[in-house]
Amino acid sequence: MKRFEGIPQFDWLDDLEKKLYTTSKLGNATQKAVSFQHNQYLTGIDKWYKPIFEAIVAKKVIEISYHPFGKDVRTVIVSPYHLKQYNNRWFLVAKRKDFNKISNYAIDRIEGIKEKSQTFEPLDDDFDFEEFFSDVVGVSIVEGAPVENVILRVTDKAWNYITTKPLHESQSVLNSKQADGKWEVRLKVQDNYELRSLLRSFGDSVEVIAPATLRQEMKEMAQRVFQMYND
User: Fold this and answer.
1) How far apart are CA 137 and CA 123, in angstroms?
2) Is it true that the peptide bond before 211 is cis, omega within 30 degrees of 0?
3) Number of neighbours of residue 64 by Cβ within 10 angstroms
């Protein structure tokens, strides 16, 4: 595992090494001292992770039966490139044969996989997935969407969390309170679903100041939530 040390896309191996170390030291007593994040109800990972990983390594084209939320199952043929974990879910990053752009597929929404004989479409040798995802929170890259300066005002409580666990690698902070008693945090990212979900998770402890479009989206969501609880 040491040969992967420091390589961002192999951070999950660091977690695995920690788990193996802990288990080796504590044996059957592991649960008494340490607990690891695990979603036992997450489907697909135990069934599809290995064949996807093997297809990536062998550069094999695969056909997947994919079931998006709220839609019918569809079949897509892809060249698989990368596995990415976010928020305790795993995603396959791949390129469809009929779509000249990279897409991601949640492994827990995959219902079947078949190896195909079509020619694998490789990425450029200098393609960097760390750079590819560098402008987003999570895995959703919105084609054509700008990378924007996001300005947040946060309470003391949120400030403690955000400064010890940054929202994004682009995060910068002003180390003095604003006139309203809040702190200012800045990000440079695309507006996507994961960003909005992350910001909503802080409730009224984080306010979006800019850009105006993101502020409006958050405002409308807050109004819908208020209406839901006000009925």
Assistant:
1) 23
2) yes
3) 25
pLDDT at 3: 44
Q: Which residues pair with 150 in a beta bridge?
A: 187
Q: State the Cα–Cα distance between residues 204 and 154, nearest whole angstrom.
A: 9
CA distance 120 to 98: 13
Q: Is the pLDDT of residue 42 over 90?
A: no
3-state percent breakdown (helix, strand, coil) of the chain, nearest 5: 40, 25, 35
User: Which residue ranges form the domains of the chain, and what is each CATH number?
Assistant: 37-130 (2.30.30), 148-230 (3.30.70)
Q: Which two tokens stand for residue 91?
A: 């995603």
pLDDT at 36: 58
The CB density around residue 199, as the number of other CB atoms within 10 Å, is: 22
